[in-house]
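Hello support,

Our group uses your service weekly, and this is the first time we've seen a run hang past the timeout. The protein is Lactate dehydrogenase-like 2-hydroxyacid dehydrogenase. I'm not sure whether the cause is the sequence or the server load. Input pasted verbatim:
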Amino acid sequence: MPNAILRVNKVPDALADLVSSHYDLYEYLEMGAEEFNAIANDIQVILASGESTVDAVLINQLPNLRLIAVFGVGYDGVDTHAAFQQQIQVTNTPNVLTDDVADLGMALMLAASRQIFGAQRFIENGEWHGKPYKLTAKVSGRRLGIVGFGRVGHAVAKRAKGFDMPVGYYDKHPADDPECTFFPSIMELADNSDFLMICASGGPDSLKLINHEVLAALGKNGILINIARGSIIDEPALVAAIENGTIAGAGLDVFASEPDVPQALLKRDNVVLTPHIGSATQHTRRAMAELVLGNITAFYAGEPLLTPIGK
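Update from on-call engineer: The timeout came from a worker crash unrelated to the input. Re-ran successfully.
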């Protein structure tokens, strides 16, 4: 079985169908130990999603593994150190989902600030007959702080400029963008923002980066948006900040323990929640699937990978 691929987590059916039409695809979660041991030596490629766990234990069980192809930008669950030590390459799917994720970030910011879903419930509950809906907060012209100024962060900044928003950002290094203001610490950025949008990568370096102190700096008129990774926010701290009025609201597409969402965040007018749909459009998911297949095809052909992750 020279073209054997192991799928270690749920990926869209369209991707699975695309890959299985070219290669032998095996389902790791559906096989027992005996079946796994029988095919372990034949596996050269792992097909994973952004939420998959590909740790050193699994890597060491596949002696001929040479590529981990991730469907998504994030690869937090992949032990890249263990992979690179064994000359195993890792790819992801950057660029193709940037616009969709940035679009959703803007949508969450608008919906949370203007309390769109609270206003919808107001109509559905028949309350409009007795009184007007409460006043909400403006978006245009207010300050946007972006945490993580990579592809998505830049795309968000581009959109925010259309709303006449002054844009600041926090990242490891200043970017070559004179229209946006670099802040050397996340505390300074939060203190100078009305909206704080998380666009950073996940992983140990950003774990619970948004904590009590950052939320307090954002302040009672500030709104937090997360389109990156749930692990970046200290979720109990966020719940407390919402309940205590430390911040004005939140728009969240990602959570610490998906699909579980803290009950305290549900059915609040000032909190907008979506089920990790940042890249979930038909156009983008198809492009992501084709990029994954392109990386796998390049690997088997002995050609340079399209989107390798640097060591």
